[in-house]
Amino acid sequence: MALETEMLDLVATVLELSPQRRAQLTPDSPLLGALPELDSMAVLDLLHAIEAQYGVTIEDETVTSDRFASAKALADWVRELRGDALN
């Protein structure tokens, strides 16, 4: 679950969420469509932050709304991109 927590922290940082709002989020909390701050520009910022932090390359055709459903979905995607054995 550590990667899910890292995803939550990254989302909170990119979206500039208050510590109180960050504390309310769980790995299964809905993100896209539930957080007004997560608009199309914020999605791009988050993609760039994920690439920088995890050393992965995200191809445009792999970006779908399902990837941003929750921090768990984002973490699973990063694992997939890194080729982690824990998939």
Q: Any overview of this molecule?
A:
- The structure is a single chain.
- With 87 residues, this protein is an all-alpha fold.
- Helices cover 54% and strands 0% of the residues.
- It has helices spanning 2-15, 19-24, 40-54, 71-82.
- Helix 1 (2-15) crosses helix 3 (40-54) and helix 1 crosses helix 4 (71-82).
- The protein starts with a helix and ends in a 5-residue tail after the last helix.
- The model has no long low-confidence stretch (mean pLDDT 94).
Inertia-based shape: globular
Strand content: under 5%
N-to-C order of helices and strands: HHHH
Helical segment tally?
4
End-to-end Cα distance, whole Å, is 12 Å
Radius of gyration: 12 Å
- What is the number of strand segments? 0
* Helix share bin: 40-55%
> Mind summarizing the main beta sheet?
none
Q: Report low-confidence residues grouped into runs of 5 or more.
A: none
Overall SS class: mainly alpha
- Overall residue-averaged pLDDT value: 94
